[in-house]
Amino acid sequence: MLLTRPAAAPPASGPAAPRRPVGSPAWRHIDFFLVAMTGAVSVLGVVMVYSTTRFALATAGGDPQAEMKKQLIFTVIGMAAFMGTVFFDYKRYLAWAPALYAGSLLMLLATLAIGRRTLGATSWIQVGSFQFEPSEVVKVTLILSLAALLASRKGNVSGRLLLVVLGLAMVPFLLIFKQDALGSALVLAVVLVGMLLMGGTKGRHMVVLALVAAVGIGAVVQLGVLKQYQRDRLTTFLTAPSGLGRPAVNANNPYAATIQYNLDQSKTAIADGGIYGKGLFNGLLTNLSYVPNQSTDFIFTSVAEQFGFVGSVLLLALFVLMVWRTWRAAVRSRDLAGTLICIGVLAMLTFQVFENVGMTMGIMPVAGITLPFMSYGGSSMVVDWVAIGLVVNVGMRRFS
Amino acid sequence: MNAPSGETPSVKVRAMAVLVVVVCLFGTLMGRLWYLQGVESQAPQLKTAVGEGLQTIYIPAPRGEIFDRNGVLLAGDRIEEVVTVNPGALAAHPTIANELSAVLGVPVAQVKAAIQNPQYSPYQPVPVATGVPQSVVLAIDENQSLLPGVQVQAEPVRYYPHAKTMANIVGYVSQITGSEYAADKSATCGPGVPCYQTNSQIGQAGVEATFEKYLRGTPGKEIVQVDSQGHVLATVKVVPPVPGDDLVLSVSLKDQRAAVQALRQGVLSARNGPADIASGYHYRAPAASMVVEDPRNGQILALATYPDYNPNDFLGGISVAKWKYYNDPANHFPLLDRAISEGYAPGSTWKLITATAQLDYGLRGAYQVYNDTGSFTVGTQVFHDNADSGFGPVDLSEAITVSSDAYFYSLGYQFWQMWAGQKGHPEYLQKIASEYGLGRYSGIQLPGEAPGLVPSQQVFTKEHDQYPKAYPDPYFYPGQEVLEAIGQGADLVTPLQLADAYSTFANGGTLYVPQVALAVEKPGNGTRPSNKIVKLFTPEVKDRVQMPDAANRAAMLTGFEGVASNVALGTAGTAFQGFPLSQYPVAGKTGTAQVGPDFGAVGWPKYIQDTSVFTSFAPAPAPRYVVDAFFEQAGYGASIAAPAVRQEYQTLFGLNKPAKKG
User: Fold this and answer.
1) Looking at CA atoms only, how far is residue B33 from chain A in angstroms?
2) Out of B11, B25, B53, closest to residue A3 by CB
3) Which helix (H) or strand (E) holds A271?
């Protein structure tokens, strides 16, 4: 196992002979399995976007394939970004990390200045006819920055380093929080925790960190830092019935009622799928656009309704396999930085899938997090492909 | 990433921990997924929630057509251009109301009100204008960009080609009213198909109402998928409507038209003829009716009423002005079918009943002579003949021919004595009247029939018990039965009932339920009946009258024939002068019925003039027709009603030369 291979020692001088065949280029070690699965999920995403948008578009008098075509373009752009990411050794990205980090912070600041408000968050920048979300980009630049920093001390995380790391993460976290993109901020937090754990943070530091976090969360809740609607989004799933059935509408809080409605439609669509699903394009609630935001954050419900339990589990299994291949790349990495990059991506993927799918089923808060490679939208598609690109990059250069 | 120090667990352990967390998280997701899709997918709420996405639109069925007995179309469906607006179009494009207003030439407010008609399903185009000319169709087609959601569709619309002539029989359809819908909304015309929607057409009068269940057909249905905004996305299932069956009436348009014509002429001649002797004023003749019935089976050939109305006025909703006109007393209520809905004092035509009863109960033989002195006295009350001089000694047939009142007054008093002398004894006269169909519903399949009234102690007691203030005296006095015996007093008979009674006599004693429809048939080609019978209406016997023996009945018949044929003495002798009675012998009876108090008691204009009545059957030996006519405030039966009936016979027997007509 490479896990025990000393990262500091050059491969040639180690006790274990390099297994890389002589003359074999790095691209021969690309994890095609991971790429294939990512591609499969992306293609399924395009089909699902079509199934959720075609009728609504046709009714509005437009091209029913319009959003599907856009999603297809996003996927192609994402794949191109993936190839670009794979092309250079990730060492370079680690070297560029400070610049990438600074750049993404600038974009976040720009968003606050000129951004567009969409679906409860001011997190979009208009570039030409496209909009993009700097908060998505930050996920990757933060992963690279943290990996570079933590790896530089070779697994020995001192208290001072920890503070620097925390500060590094806190700036984009606060900026994103300020944009109301609570979900993206949470992803950053989870990525940070995952990378700290794998980066060799001392146990007592982790305990202190946990305590500070607990106090911080308590303070945030108590001091009213969160606005009422933010709290509603986070807590509605707790008060909604666990099964189907619409709760009594609270007239005093229409926003909570809207979320409850969305949740109820979402759960109904999932339940409508049953074991085997209604079949592609036969999902009644999907066809009738009964689930709000179905092509974006609630895309999972279209899979669940059309392909049922069997199809949904297969989709989740694809994600599990992707996470497993990412974990495999992490443990086989030639250095700690590579491991940390993969763990960062793993944390990001796992949390997003769990939070998003859990949200549609009413066991997680409605936090505005996309389902990777599935949800309609260009920014997350491209960023997620770049993340997979980093994982593949680490994996294919494990011998170099 | 060297061998871990004592403080930090090895990278391997940490990596394994990550895996465990990942597995736990995905395990949680799958567990929850199983709960929703394996368990909750059976929940009843799911069916409700999913059902919200499906909507059913009902497609009205083409209504069955109505034909006369000779296959002439009386009520049909005309294809008309209907301008419709899609639901939601007005909200999306508020300008279309103005554009449509300009194209159709109606106020904007009216267009908006039509589009927002709440009686239409929100998934169904709403009609805004019906029967628009081709120019409007073109204007809408050419300006589609200005009129999004506006369409022109060809739709069947009811029409009545012989509108006024047949109005009281055929009736009309109109949009279902709120109370009718409330009463009929649970009626189903097929499995799970309600017969009516809030915008359905329903028969409101005539056979359109009484044969509604055959004519309406079965609505089709279209199940559509509707999105959360109410847009129709797709059609899931279409069940086409089943057209209603056709109805073939017993009525003949030709005979009905002749009857309507005869009524109009009779009314005019009454108004323009000699003044009323009693009051000195011209006859008002506001209303009249005529019935032509086949005595052999009770089939109605004509059922005319004056004044009449136009059923086409009711299509698509009657205008306020028209509705006011039809309900203004000055216009004598054209919507009232007087042939079946109005009870009249029948006058001397009632003598058929008294004569039958007298013979049945052996009160006085047909050839027994009664001396008519011009009046009949009961106690201190004197009942006068029409002719004060009296007719002298008369037997039954003469009494009928000359219409001797004293002859029948005396019988009425005898019947009263028979009843009063023996408590609980059947009321003979009334029993015979009832067997002839008087005082009870005939059962004709038309709405609004009146039962009439045959006065008796039973009736008086009942009326007094029910309405003691309106009927303070429950006692049935002898004078009341004396008057009843000549069709005066409280007697009330509808023209249809009188025709039924004479049909019963004419056919030898069988009272039929008068029949207005012959058959229900499968839909035809739109202009002719298909002759594919769905349901045949056969003659229905309602009651039987014990006819006097042949000789006695012959005496009655002679009396009725004499009415028309005896020029000197017959009350209608003058009216039938020149009619080929030898070829088509007409038997009849005139009636001149007093209505309300004498002129001397109330004066003009309160005085109500006499009702002119004539009833008849022909050809007398084997009658094929019974014809009667009632003219309100028109004087002697002989002067107005009898000529009108004669005119009808000329059509029935084909005696009108083409040149003579019109």
Assistant:
1) 7
2) B11
3) helix A254-273
